[in-house]
């Protein structure tokens, strides 16, 4: 977790599931505008072992 560069992380648990993620920002400066694109992975795991992952 960091402010410069921006890096975020989260973790959450509920009855029968866990969720965790990390993300940072890819930045582009276009001279008159700035573009911020999130980059990272989000993982959702259920108690039965099933896992889903999303990439940003």
TrEMBL record:
Question: Mind telling me which Pfam families this protein's record contains?
Answer: Oxysterol_BP (PF01237)
Q: Drop me one GO molecular function for this one.
A: sterol binding
Q: What is this protein called?
A: Uncharacterized protein
Q: Which GO terms describe its cellular component?
A: cytosol; membrane
